[in-house]
Amino acid sequence: MLSLIPPVEKERVKQLNPVVLAFVGDAAYTLCVRERLALSSGCKTGELNRRASERVSAHGQSGALERILPELTEEEAEIFRRGRNAKKPTKSKNASVTEYVRSTGFEAVVGYLYLTGQIARIEELFFGEEEV
Fold it and tell me: What is the pLDDT along the chain (132 residues), one digit of tens a residue?
C-alpha cells in the first residue's frame, strides 16, 4: 500500500483524538483490504465487496485483532488502548459493544501507523502471511 501523504511526526499524531485516528485507520485498512482483494482475485465486484465487508466489519477487525495483539509494540498497544477506551459518538448496529470498541482500537492503530508513514508495519501486522 502506498501512503498518499508524507509521514507526520509521531508526537503530533499521538496528540490526535483516538477516534480521529480510527477514522483515518478505517479508510486506510479498507483501502489495503480492497487493494489486496482486487489484485489477488478474479472475482466480480459483488464478491469482492462481500469479502471486503467481512474483513473490515467490526466483527472481522475484532477477529484480526486477536491474531496481532501479541505482536504490538508498547507504543502500538497504548494507541490501541486509547482507541478502545475512547468515547465514541455513535453505536454499532451490527456488532456487539465489545467488538465495536475493540475495532475502534484496531482502527486507531492502523490510523497511527498510516499517518506516521509506517506502511511496512501495517503490511507486517495485518497482512503478513494471510491469504485474502
Answer: 777 789 999 999 999 999 999 999 999 999 999 999 999 888 899 999 999 999 999 889 988 899 999 999 999 999 999 999 998 776 677 778 888 889 999 999 999 999 999 999 999 998 875 544
* In contact, 16 and 86? CB cutoff 8 Å: no
d(CA 36, CA 30): 10
Distance CA 110, CA 28 (A): 7
Query: Catalytic residue numbers?
Result: 26
How many angstroms separate the most distant Cα atoms in the chain?
42
Q: How far is CA 20 from CA 42, 61, 70, 91, 131, in A?
A: 34, 17, 24, 16, 29
